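Researcher: We're teaching a course module on how sequence relates to structure. For the next exercise, students receive a sequence and then see the predicted structure as tokens, so they can try to spot secondary structure elements on their own. Here is the exercise chain.
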Amino acid sequence: MKHCTWTYVAGEGRNIPVGLYHSRRKGHLIIYVGKKITTIDFNVLDTKEYTFFIDNELCHIRLERRGDEMFYFFEIDKTADTPMNRARWAMERKFLRQLVAALAVFAVLIAGFSFFINYQKETDLARIDELLAEQSIETVATVTIEPGREKPNISYHFVAQNQAYSSKSTYHTEPLVLLMSGMPLESGDEFIVQYSPTNPEVNRIDFKRPSKRQLATYLKRAAQKHLQLHPDEAPQLVNCMLETAFKIDGIGGLADFYFQDTPAEKNPDHNELSYARLVRGLPFQKKLEKECWQ
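Model: And here is the predicted structure for the students to work with:
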């Protein structure tokens, strides 16, 4: 005699036992709920289903024949059109409406907060521009790059009025891995910074304006990269070639030399193709012949 039991959790946390006895040989079947027998059947030897209510909840016990084995399942029917399910659906619709309303309010609050933050940031930047436009002093700032979770943390440091100041790069001045000039940004790089003489905390770095020493650093980096790829060339000739490239295309010319072994798909602006165009171009060849081969 097969005996299966389940537990139905009713209102107020009441546990109601549900079970059946089934004779596999003769097929006699008894289903009970709590202490009450709800179903008696005979000769149940194949797949069959029984339906009954527990506290207005429609329930099913299903016997399923699979070869020589019989499997038993107890299920609560939450799809049939019953008073309990209609009440459940109404409650779910109410909860869904409340959830949608709460999400809408939350979205409005987030949008308002984001707008306020962006507005405040733009206002602060506009105020900085206004103060620096009225009166500013220029000096050299040194960049520091530290690794971050999503992107590097970029800050810069300078001395004003015999005191050291540090600032983080803002959204409007923070470059990508490559600067607009084409050269990569590294710790120790130097650029011009403007600051207010009355309050040096009000400042702005200009990544488009490297210091004179930084220009020499760019030339040195490009020369080292070129000599790694062309070790047989004389360093003096390489420096002359780079000075020629700088006269023709500024820092972009140095970037062409620095990225001369980089495919175009990895760096669309400065790569092996832009390098070939530069060094094979007539302006470069003429200057090279005049200034480097004499």
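Model: If you want an answer key for the exercise: Residues 171-175 have pLDDT under 50 and may be disordered. Residues 83-134 form the longest helix (52 residues).
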